[in-house]
Amino acid sequence: xxxxxxxxxxxxxxxxxxxxxxxxxxxxxxxxxxxxxxxxxxxxxxxxxxxxxxxxxxxxxxxxxxxxxxxxxxxxxxxxxxxxxxxxxxxxxxxxxxxxxxxxxxxxxxxxxxxxxxxxxxxxxxxxxxxxxxxxxxxxxxxxxxxxxxxxxxxxxxxxxxxxxxxxxxxxxxxxxxxxxxxxxxxxxxxxxxxxxxxxxxxxxxxxxxxxxxxxxxxxxxxxx
Length: 225
Prior knowledge:
The protein has helices at 21-30, 35-43, 74-81, 84-93, 134-154, 186-193, 196-201; strands at 8-16, 46-54, 64-71, 94-104, 111-112, 123-130, 157-165, 176-183, 211-216. It is of the alpha+beta class. It folds into two domains: 8-103, 2-Layer Sandwich (Alpha-Beta Plaits); 104-215, Alpha-Beta Plaits (2-Layer Sandwich). It has an eight-stranded antiparallel beta barrel with strand order 1-3-2-9-6-8-7-4, surrounded by four helices. The radius of gyration is 18 Å and the shape is globular. The two termini are 26 Å apart.
C-alpha cells in the first residue's frame, strides 16, 4: 500500500454561463453538487471542493467564478474529468473556463493558523505569475513570509500556501507560481497588502506584473465538501 500523500490543487476559473448567480447555484448543485457526483469525485480522491466569486461582486449577478479542489490522486482527477457527463456539467456552469492543476511549491514556506472563536468570515486572495527561477523565488518568498507573518496574522490572515503549475510528463519545469491566502477580515487584509513592507518583500518575486484577485463565498447554499 502506498502511504505517501501529496495533494494537488485544481483551480477552475472562468465566467458563469447562467444569467444570474442564483441560476448558477442551482445548476452547480444539480451537476457537480449532485450526491452521486460528489460520491464519485470523492471515491477518486477529491477531498475538498470550494466555490468562490469576486469579493466586490459576491451578491451581484453572474460573472467570474472560481472553483478550488484538492485531490489526493492525479489518476483519479484525470479519470473523473475524462467523463463526458462531467465535462457537460462544467459547460453548463461555465461559459468559458481555464482548469489548471498545481503541485505544492517544494521548500516554500506555508502555514495554517487557527481562527479565534466567532471569526467565521473567509476571504480568499490569490496571486498568479511567472518567476525567474525556483531557487531565487524560494529565497525571496520565504524571507518575505518570515518578515511579515506577525503583521499578517494581526491583520486576520489564517493561512498561506504556494503552488507551481504541474508540468506535463517530460515537459520542462513549470515556473508559474500560484499563491493562496485565506483571511477572516477583508478590510485589514487590504491594508496589509498595501503596506510598503509587504510590497518590498515581494517586489522581485515575479518576472512581470502578477494576476491578483480577492474572492468570497457566493450567496446561497452551494454544495461543498
